[in-house]
Amino acid sequence: MLGRAVAGLALVASGSVADGMRILDEVSAAVIAGELTDRVAIGLCGCYLIAACERVRDFERAVQWCRRLKEFCAKWGLRPLFAVCRTQYASICLWRGTWGEAEQELCAASEELAACRPAMKGDALVRLAELRRRQGRLAESAAIVEQLAPHGAGLLARARLALDCDDPGGALELIEQYLRHLPILNRIDRASGLELAVQAHTDLRGWPGAKAALDQLREIAAIVGTIPLRADLSFASGYAAMGKGNANEARLCFEDACEMYTRSGAPFETGRARIQLARALGALGRGNAGVEELCRGKAILSGLNAGLEVARAEKLLSDLLLPHSIDPANSQKAEPGELTGREIEVLRLVAEGLSNDSIAQRLFLSEHTVHRHLANILNKLDVPTRAAAVAQATRRGLLA
User: What is the pLDDT of residues 273-296, one digit of tens each?
Assistant: First the structure.
């Protein structure tokens, strides 16, 4: 039965979701019927089922089994298994937006694993880092990520942080390393890396790379067919279309993503998709519709206390309320030698007398990223100091 459970999980990971879940259901039925007597085998079979549910985001089924498995582990004193189960349950809480519950489970699981199985606490730390990232607490997330092994899920955690810190080049290196060492048939896990690859390539304006990643993601979504993965595909397609200036195509993709994320019970993803939909509407000259959509997304994210995403929504709202529309090709970009929108933001704060650390906190960036922006500014303006950069930018009217 344990072998069949492993086989079911492998089928799910490869994209044969229906076949894999059917085998896992059979094993679960045997467990419930009392056909298994080995306590560790029973617990592991339950863990494999929950892991499969987590991968395809079948959270209703996962919740039921998490409760049963936690009761089972508590009854028989299986501390490591209990901690792993709490870690998996926290992923469900992350997806559904119950972040307070996720934090309780992850902190408890981390302490439990540190005491009884230190080598197994990596999964709990990955999820805790993701929770902090979603909350906009990037410095705390980065500190947790530093504890992770530099492979597997740890690479994706670093890549997500790099994207949040406006470092798509660094993110892409991590994503490519992750994909390079992942079996080609592990389609479910590859999808997570490919979605990030589309974003990184788009931010770098690497259109062939974005298309290649998007094509692979589309192929996987067609095989797996789950609503959450189709939603991820729509979001990635919209992001790439918006980057290339195809605002109407992006609008259609983000509308689909919003609908599917809502059906999947994913408030954070829904809120992000609504913000991107607002960008597309603004680029199409539909500012009022964009503001309405943006307010809906911001309300969702504010309810979650997703600080970084709320700040991005507020920045976009100020742009939408201006008499001009949003640049569909990404207003943060600039021609060679010109300052980007983000660099001008940084320089304005330098002009206010803020230190790198204060600027990082104000813009929800890492101090390293602020340092990199300032280095780029000095190079582009061909000046030796921050003060000289402010003076020249002022003369050119860039800080007005």
Answer: 999 999 999 999 888 888 899 999
